[in-house]
Amino acid sequence: MAQAAGAGAQAQGDSQESWSGVAPEAARRLLVAAVEAFAERGFHATTTRDIAGRAGMSPAALYIHYRTKEELLYQISRVGHERSVRLLSEAASGPGGNADRLAAAVRAFVRWHAEHHTTARVVQYELAALGEEHYAEIIGLRRRSEELVRDLLAAGAEAGEFEVADARGTALAVLSLCVDVARWFTPGGRRTPEEIGAFYADLVLRMVGARPS
Amino acid sequence: MAQAAGAGAQAQGDSQESWSGVAPEAARRLLVAAVEAFAERGFHATTTRDIAGRAGMSPAALYIHYRTKEELLYQISRVGHERSVRLLSEAASGPGGNADRLAAAVRAFVRWHAEHHTTARVVQYELAALGEEHYAEIIGLRRRSEELVRDLLAAGAEAGEFEVADARGTALAVLSLCVDVARWFTPGGRRTPEEIGAFYADLVLRMVGARPS
Questions:
Q1: Do B34 and B104 fall into the same domain?
Q2: Which domain CATH number covers B43?
């Protein structure tokens, strides 16, 4: 399928920004290769040999950096989820009122899931393949993301800016709407990641009944 | 992981309703087994031998009903997408005004994605593994689902019931919000499929600026 074939190239486009904090360069190259392989074939159909091959390395060289295939998935998942927490937390403490902050959070979160849709799909759809301890750590990061949005909704409701009956359920729906962009987004489509982000920010402000404060 | 282990049992719970139109019983049993296997391990990591074994059949018996593993994925995908079109089209021609119809569509679509979340994940996340002709057919069904929601939004906007600037983008967002329920839903959670459906219908009516007609 053309779709699957395109996923690799896209992951490569992703790589420079997503993994810039990962050192040395060989470890970073392996993460990029793992994202490509997991996105194209799924975690269980991918071998460490496939990943090493894509990175132009030997399986032995891979084991210097990652003990197992699960360790690679964990690193991808951790970096992706930490990025989510950072984006949301920056927006939640940004300038303006709660509506401005919520709109900024949605714009940033959508933009990340569109621009890095290949990475985001691995991050969001392969969670069940994580080992127990790693899974628990990632679930903690997901809770943190949900709390950031929930607190923002609660603050807006308390200030009379939003009308939100169930802050927890609404926060989950807001994040869910943004995450699913990674499933359907294709580069070169009708709208850019920025345009989708701006459009979704408007939809979300309506969802929370935002009124000028 | 407990999550992955639970997926099989859940698919089994799904099976009776989802595949009731599939005959003979052996073909139905193989579809249920394929959903379980694809959900747990992904399409590419699953063999026809795995699927036959889960269904308590020999690989030779599988080939009487399905020529390839892709044929099984196609049948799962087709049944799932035809169900979506039917649910949306029934809601879109149901009683009441456009707001009632949109709310009914969201309730039915969310409920299906929650109750059949294992099937829905396979239907939504393994599209890229379909062969070219099958992929084109499924894309046609997806377009039909989008059109049904878009036409409903346009009708509501024209009647002055909704305030929608971009019916196409909004329709995509509405469906996207509902589809993503399949990713995060877990049975026995805080809310039932019906409760999530009712809550999401309210959020969507806000998104489209619904006013009493």
A1: no
A2: 1.10.10
Residues B166 and B79 in one domain: yes
Residues B46 and B83 in one domain: no
The ipTM is 0.89
- Write out chain B residues lying below 8 Å of A181, CB-based: 176
List residues of chain A with CB under 8 Å from any CB of chain B: 1, 3-4, 7, 41-45, 121, 124-125, 127-132, 135, 166, 169-170, 172-173, 176-177, 179-181, 183-184, 191, 199-200, 203, 206-209
Band the pLDDT of A123: cuts 50, 70, 90.
very high
The tens digit of pLDDT for each residue in B18-61 reads 788 888 999 999 999 999 999 999 999 999 999 999 999 999 99
Contact B207 A206 (CB under 8 A): yes
The C-alpha atoms of residue A121 and residue A132 are separated, in whole angstroms, by: 20
Which pLDDT belongs to residue A1? 31
Interface test with B, best of A133, A180, A199 (most B CBs within 10 A): A180
CA B84 to chain centre: 6
**Which DSSP letter does residue B2 get?**
H
d(CA A65, CA B161): 59
Does any domain span residue A170? yes
Tell me which DSSP letter residue B67 carries. S
Nearest-CB residue to A128 (from B1, B124, B180):
B1
Distance from CA of B62 to the nearest CA of A (A): 22
Task: Assign residue A56 a region (left: φ > 0; alpha: ψ between -120 and 50; beta: otherwise).
Answer: left
| Residue with more model confidence, B185 or B3 | B185
Torsion over CA: A74, A49, A27, A42 (sign)? negative
Domain membership of residue B34 as a residue range: 2-67
pTM score? 0.90
Distance CA A102, CA A167 (A): 13
Contact B169, B146 (CB under 8 A): no
Q: Which candidate in A127, A142, A176 is best for mutational testing of the B interface (most B CBs within 10 A)? A: A176
CB-defined contacts A:B, below 8 A = 99
- Indicate whether A64 and A84 sit together in one domain: no
Q: Is residue A212 part of a domain?
A: no
Residue B43 and residue A43: Cβ atoms within 8 Å?
no
Q: Are residues A87 and A127 in the same domain?
A: yes
A125 contact residues in B (CB cutoff 8 A): 121, 125, 183
